[in-house]
Every structure is written in C-alpha cells, then in structure tokens.
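Reminder to self: tokens first, then the designed residues, so the page reads top to bottom the way the pipeline ran.
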C-alpha cells in the first residue's frame, strides 16, 4: 500500500492505531475488537494501519466525521456507518479523546504511537 499523504481519523480510530501499534497480528487484533467486520474489512484496515506504522512521519488530522478507516469498512455506505449510530460513535470519540488525551489537531503517526503510554486505561 502506498504511504498516505494526509490521513483523517476519528479519535476512536486514533486510539486503535495507538493500541495496535507493534502487535504481531493486526488482522486478528482488528477482528477481535470488532466482530462485525468481515475478514476482508479487517485485512484492509490492518494493511492501512501497517502502512501508517511503516511511515511514522505521516500526518494525521483529527476529524469528527467518517474517516479514512471508516471508508475501508463494508459497513460504510458512503455517508456513515450502517451498523452504529453517529451518536454512539461520537460518544466513543469523546471517551477516547479523554482517555488518550487527544486534541482536535494534527499529529504524526509516531506521536499517536506514544499515546498508548498516556492512556488512563485500555477501554478499546
């Protein structure tokens, strides 16, 4: 996968990137986190994350809307998630913004990797 120039991620996806960083099997980790993902969705997300891990200077912009990981999912219909409400997704974003101390700004992948150690708990 080609390194992305600028990545847009919701806070709950930034938390997942931080948590999955350096795991030996990202596909299994993605599937265990969300059993609603198909194997193909999990592989696409894992490949995307691996591309981020391999390119630690990639910029990430925090967004409050469907992001680059959402668009890899079979449950994304072009406007939003078909299996979760925007309200529940926003609550997850708010929780992870607090738990991982995520601000609405730009980060580099290597900065996201280090967020793991700042977390108050692993609520993923």
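Designed residues (124 positions):
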């Amino acid at each position: 996968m080609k390194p992305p120039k600028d990545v847009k991620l919701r806070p709950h996806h930034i938390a997942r990137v931080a948590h999955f960083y350096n795991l030996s099997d990202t596909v299994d980790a993605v599937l265990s986190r969300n059993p609603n993902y198909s194997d193909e969705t999990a592989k696409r997300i894992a490949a995307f994350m691996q591309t981020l891990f391999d390119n630690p200077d990639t910029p990430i912009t925090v967004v409050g809307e469907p992001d680059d990981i959402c668009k890899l999912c079979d449950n994304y219909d072009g406007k939003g998630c078909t299996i979760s409400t925007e309200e529940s997704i926003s609550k997850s974003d708010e929780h992870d913004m607090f738990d991982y101390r995520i601000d609405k700004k730009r980060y580099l992948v290597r900065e996201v990797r280090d967020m793991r150690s700042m977390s108050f708990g692993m609520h993923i």
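The mean pLDDT is 84.
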